[in-house]
Design brief:
The chain is of the alpha/beta class. The chain is about 40% helix and about 15% strand. Helix 1 packs across helix 10.
Length: about 250
């Protein structure tokens, strides 16, 4: 049975679209067939993150308005990973939850997972995407403003009776080891939701093909098999040599 997951966040800039792309790749490498749907009609760049923007011929608007079939609009990213692109300049209010549900139903026979990348916040785009899915992944960073907004999203998801889980992105291991940002347990206590993924902060700007895979592999296994624990970004900053690394990181 296909599982549909809406990937959402309380605020923009937390890395929601990158998490969608990297999680999709990790699930596909578990030999699951995965479709990523870009349902963010305002800031739609999932095709760019996946480095497939030059491969797009049809998009979700063409599917909804019957100019092509769903399969014609899918862009193959690897053997098990596909993208249904958003429509640039398309008026998102013309898309409903029912439109997306029809698309999901047409994919259910062939695919194991659909990840729907929806707009940040809790406006119409959020409600449209959430109403079509059966579970939710809330992406946040370990900063108080992002966690506060994530809490609002989680509260709203409860009204849809959609079970959420949390991914904490851009976690600096040195700050975590020093107790300057909340730990996984503290975030779970604050949000009252399980944290299934922790993605460490990385130096520099990476393209999709250069993003570290290990944190997303652990997240994919936790979501699919229900086993394992998220990566611990603070592990390398504990102990004697970890203290040296912390001091060096402050100088850089």
């Amino acid at each position: 049975m296909m599982k549909s997951i809406v990937v959402t966040s309380g605020k923009g800039g937390v890395g929601k679209t990158t998490v969608t792309a990297c999680l999709g790749r990790a699930l596909s490498e578990l030999n699951r067939r995965v479709v990523l749907i870009d349902a963010d009609f305002g800031l739609n760049n999932l095709d760019v993150v996946l480095e497939k923007e030059n491969r797009v011929v049809y998009d979700i608007a063409d599917v909804i308005e019957n100019r092509c079939r769903v399969r014609q609009a899918l862009v193959e990213c690897n053997r098990n990973l596909y993208l249904l692109p958003s429509a640039h300049g398309y008026l998102g209010e013309r898309v409903t939850s029912q439109n997306i549900k029809v698309i999901l139903n047409s994919l259910a026979v062939t695919f194991d997972y659909v990840l729907v990348d929806c707009p940040a916040g809790i406006e119409m785009g959020f409600n449209r995407a959430v109403g079509a899915c059966d579970s939710a992944l809330v992406v946040t960073t370990p900063h108080i403003s992002a966690l506060r907004d994530a809490h609002k999203v989680i509260a709203l998801l409860s009204s849809y009776k959609i079970p959420p889980t949390v991914v904490v992105n851009r976690v600096r291991g040195d700050l975590l080891a020093e107790g300057k940002i909340p730990s996984k347990d503290e975030i779970e206590d604050l949000l009252k939701v399980r944290v299934d993924g922790i993605i460490p902060e990385t130096d520099g700007v990476f393209g999709f093909s250069e993003m570290p895979k290990k944190p997303f592999e652990l997240l994919a296994k936790r979501l699919h098999f229900g086993t394992g624990e998220p990566i611990d970004p603070a592990a390398a900053y504990r102990g004697f040599f970890g203290g040296i690394r912390r001091r060096l990181s402050k100088r850089s």
